[in-house]
Amino acid sequence: MEREEIKVAVLRIEGTNCEDETVKAFRELGVFCEAVHLKQFYSDMIRDEEQRTFSDYNCIAFPGGFSAGDYVRAGAIFSARLKSVLRRDLEEFIKQEYPVIGICNGFQVLVELGALPGFDEDRPIADKPEMALCINDSSRFECRAALLKHENRGKCVFTRKLEKEVVMFPVAHAEGKVVFPKGMEDEYVDRLVQNDQIVFRYVDPDGNYAGYPWNPNGSIYNIAGICNVTGNVFGLMPHPERAFWYPHEDGKAVFESVVEYLEKL
């Protein structure tokens, strides 16, 4: 696929607020990217020229923000609306190995959808969530630079061009604590490690796994980002789109990696 043929949709609803930065990051690399409201995929009240389908795109991004005001749980309403009318379309999109990324609130949406941890290759969206992103241990909104160790060995299509072992992406969230079913935490972590699904873990300035404030939310195993078992669905709490431009360009590799992946499809 030629770069100018690549098309990316950044999905938004009321409350998302990072779509512009995400769109700009993709456009900076010479691909077509637009922010698209979820209703454009299913509402019969949308004008024909504004209607969209997943088949119009080669990559889907769920941006950060506070979709639907984070009522019920962060990402829950966004995911419920999407799952009720577009589950099959998104599942087919993922099965075709097209990439999907969820950043911060977008990660929360993917978790609520059941698209992450994504252990089942044949069923890319589980019937119910298999993990959760809970309130930070500090019980407060955490907004700061975070240091992340790149753990992935090549499965995740969003980090294959990342050469640095430790990167800096900002975090800005109140519900980012990775939690697995009670009593099954070790099983989940072991499975993620064996499948090469752990992408980023929080570290301190010496590159060591550490607690608060370096782990801003208390996530188990210091997990900051994971991918599904096939590596084309990626969710992370820190914001690579906010570390795209000079002087902090660590996030640029995330977008470069997926664009290069699409060029090879």
What's this entry about, in short?
The protein is α/β, with parallel strands linked by helices and 265 residues long. It is 23% helix and 22% strand.
What order do the helices and strands come in, and which of them pair?
Elements: E1 7-12, H1 19-28, E2 32-37, E3 59-62, H2 76-95, E4 100-103, H3 105-113, E5 132-134, E6 142-150, E7 166-173, E8 177-179, H4 185-194, E9 198-203, E10 223-227, E11 233-236, H5 252-263
Parallel strand pairs: 1-2, 1-3, 3-4, 4-11
Antiparallel strand pairs: 5-8, 6-7, 6-9, 9-10, 10-11
Report on the architecture of this protein.
The protein has helices spanning about 20-30, 75-95, 105-115, 185-195, 250-265; strands spanning about 5-10, 30-35, 60, 100-105, 130-135, 140-150, 165-175, 175-180, 200-205, 225, 235. With about 260 residues, it is an alpha/beta fold. The protein has a single domain (about 5-265), classed as 3-Layer(aba) Sandwich (Rossmann fold), CATH 3.40.50.880. Strand 1, helix 1 and strand 2 form a beta-alpha-beta unit. Helix 2 packs across helix 3 (about 105-115). It starts with 6 loop residues before the first strand and ends with a helix. The model has no long low-confidence stretch (mean pLDDT about 95). Part of the FGAM synthase complex composed of 1 PurL, 1 PurQ and 2 PurS subunits. One of its GO terms (molecular function) is glutaminase activity. Pfam families: GATase_5. This is Phosphoribosylformylglycinamidine synthase subunit PurQ.
